[in-house]
Amino acid sequence: MPPSSWTLLGITSLALQLKRSLELGRWEYYKQRLFFLVLALLMATVLWALILSTLLSKASRERAALLSNQDLLRTNASEQKLMLSALKEDVGTCGNCCSMTKAQLQTTLTEFKDTRAKLMEQQSTLKELQDRVIQDLAKAGRDRENIRSELFRALEAVKHGNSSCELCPPSWLLFQGSCYYFSETQAVWDTAQSHCAGQGAHLVIVSNLDEQGFLSQHTRGRGYWLGLRAIRHLGKIQGYQWVDGISLTFSHWNSGEPNDSRGQEDCIMMLHSGLWNDAPCANERDGWICEKRSSC
Ligand code: MMA
Ligand code: CA
After folding, report:
1. Which of 16, 39, 117, 224 is the most buried (most CB within 10 A)?
2. Which residues have CB under 8 Å from 259's CB, separation 6+?
3. Residue 98 CA from chain centroid, whole number
4. Residue 193, ligand 1, Cβ within 6 A
5. How confident is the model at residue 268 (pLDDT cuts 50, 70, 90)?
6. Residues with beta carbon < 5 A to ion ligand 2?
7. Domains, the chain
8. pLDDT tens profile 89-124
């Protein structure tokens, strides 16, 4: 029961006792009872004061604790705020740094691409140069051979008053310092080339219209392999090359040739008319013409 109820009860009981004492008219009894009642009232008041002070002190303690918690929370909040702004700054710095690195990488990549393109250009120029040097060297070699044999022949002619030595082996034909052999049998291109090599010769190289004219006079209605082949890369013909490595300059194609029929015609032959046709290297229908420099 709360202290206020106790007080109310005390006062009510006091009033009742007073009333009873007056009614009875007994003063002594009244005095004694009054004393006890005053005492009870006093005790109730003290008790009330004690309870109140306890409650008050408890409330003030809780208030102080709450206030200190509030301070703590405020401090924490400001610390968190500081940390957040530092983090934001870090994120900003990182973003800037990333975009700078990206731009640098982009520049490096572009430079790399440029350099690569330049290098590839230089490489192809070098390749062209190398091809040209190879061609020129082969041509120079051929010219040197021609000059040497011409010189030799001239010397011999001077020595003997006239040339008496056998210029070409039997059954070979002489034309402008070279000996030519027209085969009687037929073979595939590789075998034909081996036959010539076995005689110290090679499949014929037709250098000009004079030579072409000479050869076409001796076909006797047959076809012959020439020393000319296609250069094929990834299935596509890039050009034609003589067996001494020189690219084709002079040519005497039949009309519509070379047609690389069925994509298999890598070897060149002379038709009986003297005109040229590209044909499969594995054809066994054709004979061959060997050529070598005259030996004297
Ligand atoms: C045709 C013609 C040539 C080809 C041969 C292959 C007879 O000539 O197409 O170009 O090389 O056929 O046998
Ligand atoms: Ca052909």
Report:
1. 224
2. 265, 278
3. 23
4. no
5. very high
6. 257, 259, 265, 277-278
7. 166-293 (3.10.100.10)
8. 876 776 676 688 889 989 889 898 998 999 999 999
